[in-house]
From TrEMBL:
UniProt organism field: Ruminiclostridium herbifermentans
Annotated residues for binding of GTP: 59-62
InterPro entries with a match to the protein in the record: P-loop_NTPase, RapZ-like, RapZ-like_N, RapZ_C
Protein name in UniProt: RNase adapter RapZ
Keyword GTP-binding: yes
Gene (UniProt): rapZ
Length: 291
């Protein structure tokens, strides 16, 4: 029997995750009091295979009952049941935005400011997060990407390294993405914009891609970047970082940065990392001006 505790920050996507788990055969129960976990596990074990995959959503809505979670987990472990904890995380500003858009009230902010409630919840969940087997930061994940993460872990059994790598190509003329941990300027690479047949194309077109990736400067850059990321990623994982945002920029975000971001994405995927990619500015200024 696979027994999963789904928890984490309010607004981080637990409802969506519950639906995705149900889609792949999990029996899900929302907001179960921790004191009933052992009884529920026993009932599931006696279901003659009808409840082989269980997911319990337990979070701050339980109030003081949340303090009973650790004793309850110890109890089910002593009774011979194993469990996994999935923790959903998101940045404070993202959670604030989601709550304002949904017009819902945060469980801990009924009589105070929303951000204060979020910070109180984050503190209350510190110990649970520290015990989590899987931590997914949903701050920049689209719903399809979150669904794929759940499938990777609970359906396909892929290795969970603890970090999601987000790659974004962008144009410096439109500003540097503010959430990037690492930013690489590839404007030193020969620019396809100045070659007429490629001017109006993008870095996803084969002609542009070959031109950019075959440049000696690109080959040397990618080799050095490979070495850097091979060193950094394991150390970020060791430090507990759950998300790494990498920005790759050229002048307009249409040619060089797109081709190189796609190549970095391909290389990281080959190394079995969990990677998400976005081409932020590829459709901007589509006439190719200043690319």
């Amino acid at each position: 029997m696979r027994f999963v505790i789904v928890t984490g920050m309010s607004g981080a996507g637990k409802s969506l995750v519950t639906k995705y788990l149900e889609d792949i055969g999990f029996f899900c129960v929302d907001n179960l009091p921790p004191s009933l976990i052992l009884k529920f596990a026993e009932i599931s074990a006696q279901s003659e295979g009808k409840m082989e995959k269980i997911a319990l959503v337990i979070d701050i809505r339980g109030g003081e009952l949340l303090h009973d979670l650790f004793p309850a987990l110890d109890e089910i472990q002593q009774s011979g049941f194993s469990y996994e904890i999935l923790f959903l995380e998101a940045d404070d500003d993202v959670l604030v935005k989601r709550y304002k858009e949904s017009r819902r009230q945060h469980p801990l902010s009924q009589e105070g400011r929303l951000l204060k409630g979020i910070k109180e919840e984050r503190k209350a969940l510190e110990k649970i997060k520290a015990k989590a087997n899987y931590i997914i930061d949903t701050s920049t994940l689209a719903t399809r990407q979150l669904k794929q993460e759940i499938n990777n872990i609970f359906l396909e059994g892929k290795t969970f390294t603890g970090i999601i790598i987000n790659i974004v190509s962008f144009g410096f003329k439109y500003g540097i993405p503010t959430d990037c941990d690492l930013v690489f300027d590839v404007r030193f690479i020969p620019n396809p914009y100045y070659i007429a047949p490629m001017k109006l194309k993008t870095g996803k077109d084969e002609m542009v891609k070959e031109f950019v990736l075959n440049a000696p400067e690109t080959k040397e850059f990618l080799g050095k970047l490979d070495d850097m990321l091979d060193f950094l990623i394991p150390n970020y994982i060791k430090e507990g970082k759950s998300q790494l945002d990498i920005g790759i920029g050229c002048t307009g975000g249409r040619h060089r940065s797109v081709a190189i971001a796609d190549e970095v994405f391909r290389r990281l995927e080959e190394k079995k990392h969990r990677v998400v990619i976005e081409h932020r500015d590829i459709e901007k200024d589509s006439r190719g001006v200043g690319k």
